[in-house]
Design brief:
Blueprint lengths: L2 H6 L6 H8 L5 H10 L3 H25 E7 L3 E8 L9 E4 L3 E7 L3 E6 L4 E12 L2 E8 L14
Antiparallel strand pairs: 1-2, 2-7, 3-4, 4-5, 6-7
Amino acid sequence: MALKSFFDSGPLPDWQELRRWLGKDIPWKMAENWDRAGDANWMNDYVKKLLQNAIAGANASERATVQAETRQGGKYVSIAIRLAPEVDVRSLQLMATSERLKIRGLPGGKKRVIRFPSLVYARSGKAIMKNERQIVLRFKRRPPEKNEYELFIQT
């Protein structure tokens, strides 16, 4: 249910009652002034901004422990991973599918998923420790499927 359809469907909610239900989670002065402004988009923008900030904050700590750079060549996809000093290399576990690489064993029980720029053969993957804080992985690229298949509609 979209917020706009909720607010356009009838009388506006009683802000005092909502304040008792939700506490201080909503900027109430904005909510009370909304009745006067007649603008329903402020709530969508506010919630979207809150979610983006929360996601960015959660991802920042993961990205600080693992920095990854992917490269796609003619026959291979390579990933260079730089690890922060707090990462214990012995506890890392690398899991690959044809579409992504999952890194488990990061500090705090975290994991990180890195999408490949193209499909790969997961079993062809090789991981080499280049230096104390860098791992380089290489996968053979899977060719794109060019076959076209007819799909029949069942009735």
